[in-house]
């Protein structure tokens, strides 16, 4: 007799305990190119910060065990897919594709016009999956690092300030759209934990940065400057790194003018993600809510 097929169920993430979701998520990402691990509180913070809708997110169950998941976040008419993962023993069976098809269909039904995601450069299977579903590559998002204090810049006043104040200049200083994780609403949820700096000349703010400080590194969460004010941006970075020379900036768009400034200061590009987008107008692929593995 042949081996009995295992029944798989596709369910809203709200139908399972969040603790079980986190355990499965960590298992799915334990051998990822960059291993990821969340505790329950960290996952709750991510859900709030990135505007994740758990009722629109999905999990796949095999024999009542979560083996795959995908999260859908929403802001106005835009969506973002994060945390697409399958536990190691269930990979290569099409679960990732079915999760993606379901999430895209949900986003379309909810009236979203587009959805974005990121995939680490080098994750060829995932990248090809997203291409096959109609996603297009927008740009690279960089992880850049520095372990030396940049020289101070003379003639520009840099002040420590609250992150909330620095972020008042976010929309005016960013000429290009920022990645989902660096959207102003996401940064505002973190503001209480962040330090801020502004550079001024004759009372006008020219550049700012906000960062998450720790004993091991300074993690910049956002920075921007007015056109042509590169020296002001250098001054802010140098001032911020005076007490912590080891610094990192994640999800810096390759077309962001800040990258040119940081490159001049000796920052190194250590890893990249592809930012991808799918237009939901007219998108249609088959999606099943219940399926079986041989």
Indicate the overall shape.
elongated
Number of strands: 13
Q: Which strand order spans the largest sheet, edge to edge or round the barrel?
A: 7-8-9-10-11-6-12-5-4-3-2-1-13
What is the total number of structural domains?
A: 2
Q: Taking Cα atoms only, what radius of gyration do you get, to the nearest Å?
A: 21 Å
Content-based structural category: alpha+beta
Whole-Å distance between the termini?
13 Å
Helix content: 25-40%
Q: Residue ranges: pLDDT <50 for 5 or more in a row?
A: 287-294
CATH architecture of the largest domain: 3-Layer(aba) Sandwich
At the fourth level of CATH, the homologous superfamily of the largest domain is Gcn5-related N-acetyltransferase (GNAT)
CATH top level label of the largest domain = Alpha Beta
Query: What's the SSE pattern?
Result: EHHEEEHEHEEHHHEEEHEHEE
Mean of pLDDT = 94
């Amino acid at each position: 007799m042949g081996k009995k097929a295992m029944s798989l169920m596709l369910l809203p993430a709200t139908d399972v305990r969040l603790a079980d979701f986190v355990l499965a998520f960590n298992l799915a990402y334990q051998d990822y190119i960059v291993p990821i691990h969340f505790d329950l509180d960290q996952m709750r913070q991510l859900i709030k910060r990135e505007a994740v809708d758990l009722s629109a997110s999905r999990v796949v169950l095999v024999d009542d065990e979560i083996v795959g998941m995908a999260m859908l976040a929403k802001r106005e008419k835009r969506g973002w897919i994060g945390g697409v993962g399958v536990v190691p023993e269930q990979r290569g069976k099409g679960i990732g594709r079915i999760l993606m098809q379901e999430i895209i269909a949900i986003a379309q039904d909810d009236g979203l016009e587009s959805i974005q995601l990121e995939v680490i450069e080098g994750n060829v299977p995932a990248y090809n999956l997203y291409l096959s579903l109609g996603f297009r590559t927008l740009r690279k998002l960089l992880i850049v690092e520095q372990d030396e204090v940049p020289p101070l810049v003379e003639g520009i006043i840099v002040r420590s300030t609250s992150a909330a104040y620095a972020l008042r200049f976010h929309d005016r200083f960013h000429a290009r759209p920022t990645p989902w994780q660096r959207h102003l609403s996401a940064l505002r949820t973190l503001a209480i934990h962040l330090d801020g700096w502004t550079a001024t000349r004759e009372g006008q703010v020219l550049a700012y940065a906000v960062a998450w400080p720790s004993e091991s590194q300074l993690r910049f969460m956002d920075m921007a400057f007015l056109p042509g004010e590169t020296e002001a941006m250098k001054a802010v970075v140098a001032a911020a790194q005076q007490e912590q020379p080891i610094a990192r900036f994640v999800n810096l768009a390759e077309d962001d003018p800040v990258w040119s400034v940081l490159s001049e200061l000796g920052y190194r590009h250590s890893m990249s993600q592809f930012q991808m987008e799918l237009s939901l107008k007219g998108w249609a692929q088959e999606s099943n809510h219940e399926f079986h593995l041989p």
